[in-house]
Amino acid sequence: MAWTQGNNNIKPVEDVNARLAAIDGDMTEEEARAALAEFLFANPAFMLDLIAGVKIFPMQEILIKGWMRNDYNLAVLGRGMSKSWACALFALVWATYNPNHRVVIISFAFRASRRILEQCEKFVNDPDAAMLKACFPQPLQRKTDEWKWVLPNGSSITCLPLGDGKKIRGVRADTLIVDEYAFLPESIIGEILRPFLASKNKIKEQLKQREREDELIAQGRMTEDQREIIEDRKKVIFLSSASYTFEHMYKTYCDWIDLLTKDTRAESLKESGVSYFIARMGWEAAPNGLLDLKEIEEARRNLSESMFNREYGAIFEGDSDGYFRAAKMQLCSVEDGGTPALELVGDPLAEYVLAIDPSLSGSETSDHFAMCVLKIVQRLDGKKIGMVVHSYAVAGGNLKDHTLYLHYLLTNFNIVYMAIDASQGDEVEFINMCNQSEQFKKAKIELIDIECEFSKDNFSEMPAQVRKSYNRTIGRIVQKQPFGSPFQKAANEYLQGCFDHKGVMFGAKIAANSAESQRAIEIGTTVVTPLLKDHEELGEMSPSQLIEHQDYLLDLTRKECSMIQVKQSSLGTQNWDLPQSIKRTTGANKTRKDSYSALLLGNWAVKMYLDSLIIPAEAPQEDFPYLLIGS
After folding, report:
1. What is the mean pLDDT of residues 412-418?
2. Do residues 462 and 454 make contact, with C-beta atoms less than 8 angstroms apart?
3. Which of 233, 255, 427, 584 has the highest Cβ tally under 10 A?
4. How would you label 3-29 residue by residue, b for 16+ Cβ within 10 Å and e otherwise?
5. Helix, strand, coil % (nearest 5) of the chain?
């Protein structure tokens, strides 16, 4: 572990404890209150134990003190190193000690930012936190697009959905906390967060103060060097696990390190007047008692080296070492702010392929019911490929919700071909259930199987069989695909090749493109979409939440793909799956691979559909010639 101040603009820290200890004599009650407040603020560990009944490790106190004293803060911590937990404590203390202060928390998804405020609520409502509870007498306000906790001193802690960034652009804040910073689009950071940090909040107060001082100087009652300096420093805290070196967070990390360590940048840092605090700590820096070392060793044995380094070691890696390379997928992704982007409603002139990996369990700990929509696009070289533009992934949903969402996709996207994992058999086959539903019957939608031996391994013959059976007019567009070993091998090798040669693409995030996000919001206010529920969501998502949810599912799909590993059994068969240690995790937030499976199936379905189009149609058979013989 290494510590360095470098070129940082850090003010001298007063030894408050020594000053208070030197006080001799009696104090008034007001002086005693002020002295106690100073002492507690200078000793966060003691304060949190006293007012909240929480004991923190020295490492956590260092983090909290670093965030208190610096303007730009970046915490790159390994899994289990309590970054969100410590940040919740900081938010409580900072809002309590700074009247009329606005703390705003955002993340790539609303539910992620809410976790910090929910942790704040747990601290406040703890039976041992009576003193802290007195500072938060009002309940936490929960709204669809905003969670807010208002203090009697005029301060507030607010959680907002990221959406297209407009919520953040219009909100005034003094401290901004960004959880899972690596997942935010780079354009949002450049267009929203940096202007936020550059703007001033106390212009009115500064002008009034300057006018008063000018009058006193003119009257000879004050000199120029006695002017009061009103600090108006914005504070930002970025929290994240380590990312890949080709992602934007690593660029930020390196830029800040250069500011603090390189002599050539010392002057520019001094002129800015701001201070930086970077904390990067992996599991080895954890104090005794914070982490379960048996779990760490288990993860080390079962995770890939790259994944373990990023998730637990806080080490920036150049690429994933799974079957699908993260760097390759990044090259297959339309950059933030570009087009084509993800879509809430499809282009009526475009063609789309839909893939479904069903899970009919109603338990929140089950696999995701996943769907992936790929848009048929044409590259500059004329080759047609699939581009991921819409996703769906829900655990614990009911059949009605899944049916509603499929109906939504069929009526808002020009779906020309479908594929579904049919490994569970026709008795519980989702498509058959949908055909019998009220929504499908009312809309006169019937989906029919394509007559093709998809369970066989004669893949070269399948496009011709598809061409012969396919009939969109009557709804014969469904490829029911069993996930046997031959199919998995062929489909995974094909998907890997598509990543290598840009044979499949990911659309840009909606939030990163102002035009696309505005279009999505307009669509969201006019099109009735089914309820998209996460485990805490109480109602229908707003347009901005639909946007951030689609952007989140895009990251989820790529992340799941990067974790897939291929292993060979003793019998020689290959298996593509998550690492064993990850598969053993349980609960509603366990790691899943269903979005990867939907993409795998969807990419293969695009191949089947496009290959079938180049098969010459069979000429209609002519009637046998005959003669009429009359009497």
Report:
1. 95
2. yes
3. 233
4. eeebbbeeeeeeeeeeeeeeeeeeeee
5. 45, 15, 40
Does residue 323 contact residue 600 with C-beta atoms inside 8 Å? Answer: no
Residue whose pair of structure tokens reads 């936490």 in the numeric block: 140
Tokens of 136: 């938060």
The mean-pLDDT minimum among 315-324, 420-429, 591-600 falls in: 420-429
Burial of residue 483, with CB atoms counted within 10 A of its CB: 0-12 exposed, 13-18 middle, 19 or more buried: middle
- Alpha-carbon distance 406 to 410, whole Å? 6
Other C-beta atoms within 10 Å of 169: how many?
Answer: 13
Residue ranges of domains in the chain? 27-199+234-291, 206-232, 322-579+590-613
With H, G, I as helix, E, B as strand and everything else as coil, classify residue 103. Answer: strand
For 154-177, the pLDDT digits (tens) are 999 999 877 656 656 666 788 989
CATH topology of domain 322-579+590-613: Nucleotidyltransferase; domain 5 (3.30.420)
Instruction: Give the model's pLDDT for residue 170.
Output: 64
Name the one residue in this structure whose structure tokens are 């956590």: 60
Distance of CA 46 to the CA centre of its chain: 35
pLDDT tens sequence across 276-311: 999 999 999 899 989 888 888 877 776 667 778 888
Helices (H) and strands (E) in the chain, counts: 25, 17
Backbone φ and ψ of 86, nearest 5° = -65, -35
Token pair for 321: 């070492």
Say how far apart CA 340 and CA 554 lie, in whole Å. Answer: 14
Residue with tokens 């603090």, as numbered in its chain: 260
What angle (nearest 5°) sits at the alpha carbon of residue 17, between those of residues 16 and 21? 115
CA distances from 151 to 93, 125, 136, 160 (A): 12, 15, 6, 18
pLDDT tens, position by position, 447-499: 999 999 898 888 889 999 999 999 999 999 999 999 988 899 899 999 999 99
CATH of domain 27-199+234-291: 3.40.50.300
Which amino acid would we find at residue 38?
A: E
User: φ and ψ at 115, to 5 degrees?
Assistant: -60, -35
Measured distance between the N- and C-terminal CA atoms of the chain, rounded to whole angstroms: 109
Of 593, 506, 496, the C-alpha closest to 330 is 506
- Give the CA-trace dihedral at 132, 138, 139, 140, to 10 degrees: -80
Residue 569 pLDDT level (bands cut at 50, 70, 90):
low
The pLDDT tens digits of the residues spanning 604-625 come to 999 999 999 998 766 555 554 4
Crossing angle of the two packed helices 83-97 and 110-125, in degrees rounded to 10: 70
Please tell me the distance from the alpha carbon of residue 62 to that of residue 286, in angstroms, as a whole number.
13
C-alpha closest to that of 109 among 174, 184, 168: 184
| Interatomic CA distance for residues 114 and 147, integer angstroms | 7
Distance (Å, rounded) from C-alpha 512 to C-alpha 189?
A: 10
Q: Could you tell me the two tokens for 148?
A: 């807010």
Do 599 and 498 touch, CB atoms closer than 8 A? no
d(CA 177, CA 410): 39
The predicted pLDDT at position 556 comes to: 92
